Amino acid sequence: MKFTRFSKIQSVSLPMILSPPYKNLIAQAHNGLGKTTCFVLGMLSRVDPNLKSPQALCVCPTRELVVQNLEVLRKMGKYTGITSIPALPTKDWRRGQVVDQVVIGTPGTIGKWFSYKTLSPRDLKILVFVEADHMLADSGFQEDSLKLMRDIRKANRNIQYTTYTYQDIREGATRIALVLKGPGLSTR
């Protein structure tokens, strides 16, 4: 990973993600401008490596994005001792309790893990939606995504929400704000 300078999205969003008081964030930027770096650093910075339970959750619309983002997270967090797991559909949905600190997955699988009590939202500190324009589109994963937010919000009022997209999601942002009903929602 060869970083030389911050992109605009990084210079605006990283201080909001990394510095208390943490703010909810909806960020928009074109592909290749460093959104993944932002949310991966945000997740890694919020995880306590000594606490063996999920603390960061990243929701992606496709299996390919899950694999890609997990790879970036593992490269950037290589020496941190932070563990991660993909939440992807498999033939056997039943599994033991998730103790990995970062979970990256698709909305359907994450929802099933919540319903099976395999994944607990109790210790989550940050929730990231990747490609929120797809996640919140009527034809996309809107219901699954909003249900995840509501379920997590019920179990954990102190979570930070971060959403990254490359398209305009003003309508989706309104839905997110209604679910959150909390202070500190910034749109950039």
UniProtKB/TrEMBL annotation:
Gene3D superfamilies assigned to the protein according to its UniProt record, in alphabetical order: P-loop containing nucleotide triphosphate hydrolases (3.40.50.300)
Ribosomal protein in keyword set: no
Domain Helicase ATP-binding: start-end pairs: 16-160
Superkingdom: Eukaryota
SMART domains, sorted: DEXDc
Keyword set, alphabetical order: ATP-binding, Helicase, Hydrolase, Nucleotide-binding, RNA-binding
GO molecular function: ATP binding; helicase activity; hydrolase activity; RNA binding
Name of this protein: Helicase ATP-binding domain-containing protein
Originating species: Coptis chinensis
Species lineage: Eukaryota, Viridiplantae, Streptophyta, Embryophyta, Tracheophyta
